[in-house]
Design brief:
alpha/beta, two-stranded antiparallel ribbon, about 350 residues
């Protein structure tokens, strides 16, 4: 029975590899039924190993979007290190918002536990801290549940993260790093991943303005902000309004999924994600340029009028100008000082 289950999982992994080469959509691949778990045989179950899924049904955190969860083979692993990337510094707000959304989903399953957010002084100075009063309104997180640890150096932040990752008293650990520092290498991420597995808690590695590099994280998500659409009302979209916060999510790396891109909206009332439909995606497109095109384009900037600092020669002098004293009549303190 065990050999049959292993063979089935191996065949499924090969199917995914072939589909990746051929460019087949991940939604067309159906995961095989999971084999029954025998607690007497193996109680220390690895979540993902060499591209073969072998996990309990409750080992993943569902995002709540059917296509995305299917692409991720059930969602993000709970007891693992997961990378969330922002390609540019301006994506820091979107990355933090997506991480807080995931934290809100986790706290639904583990209410009352705190979350530790770790970062260096550089990252908090650049990206700032989450707004405490907005935590409850947008994510259902009480301000006292979100703890911050500001470390002066990266080596200190990594030490705090490793110690926190082994604690079961925390619902999740968030480590925010900027760029691709040398100390955040494969060995460091392996330690974080191993301790997350041992504690059964997720560790989210937020990487601002970072490029992809080898890590021990089973999955990497690339997050950017997406244009908001107008609010939906009974009468239709409300013109001039701003709808829910939206994210463009790209699967950059996954041992059990194919690459894909999704547009998600966060519902702060339901504390859940929704995938943006095709009609809403069309409304989000902004055909109006933010600035005028350069010369020679289809929408050149209008020519500026004449700008004069002094009256034109031959023009009448205004009454206010007649009252101004001539240079010899100006007071002495307005002239340049002399030295000596």
């Amino acid at each position: 029975m065990a050999m049959t289950a292993v063979a089935r999982e191996t065949v499924f992994a090969l199917r995914r590899q072939i589909a990746k080469i051929e460019g087949t959509l991940p939604e067309r691949l159906a995961a095989p039924a999971a084999a029954p778990f025998d607690a007497d045989v193996n109680t220390d179950l690895t979540i993902v190993r060499r591209g073969i899924a072998a996990a309990l049904p409750d080992a993943f955190l569902p995002i709540g979007v059917g296509r995305l969860d299917a692409a991720l083979s059930g969602g993000l692993p709970k007891a693992a290190l997961s990378e969330i990337h922002g390609l540019e510094t301006r994506d820091a707000g979107a990355v933090a918002g997506f991480a807080l959304s995931l934290t809100s989903l986790i706290l639904k399953q583990t209410p009352g536990l705190p979350v530790l957010w770790i970062g260096t002084s550089e990252i908090f100075r650049e990206a700032g801290f989450p707004y405490a009063r907005g935590l409850h309104a947008s994510f259902g997180i009480e301000p006292e549940q979100l703890l911050f640890s500001e470390a002066p150096r990266l080596v200190d932040a990594l030490w705090v993260a490793e110690e926190a990752a082994r604690m079961t008293a925390l619902a999740a650990v968030i480590l925010e790093i900027r760029g691709n520092p040398q100390r955040l290498d494969l060995t460091a991420t392996r330690r974080l991943h191993a301790r997350a597995q041992a504690a059964g808690r997720p560790v989210f590695l937020l990487r601002q303005a970072a490029g992809p590099e080898p890590t021990a994280a089973p999955g990497r998500l690339i997050v950017a902000s997406a244009p908001a659409v107008p609010r939906d009302t009974i009468a239709g979209p409300l013109a001039g309004s701003i709808g829910r916060p939206a994210f463009t999510l790209t699967i950059g790396k996954s041992r059990t999924a194919l690459p894909g891109q999704f547009t998600l909206e966060w519902n702060p009332d339901e504390r859940a994600f929704d995938e943006r439909a095709g009609e809403a995606r069309d409304r989000a497109k902004n055909p109006v340029p933010v600035v005028s095109l350069s010369g020679g384009g289809k929408d050149p900037a209008p020519a500026s009028g004449a700008v004069l600092a002094f009256p034109v020669v031959g023009s009448p002098i205004s009454p206010a100008a007649r009252d101004q004293p001539s240079r010899p009549q100006r007071t002495a303190h307005l002239g340049p000082r002399r030295a000596g």
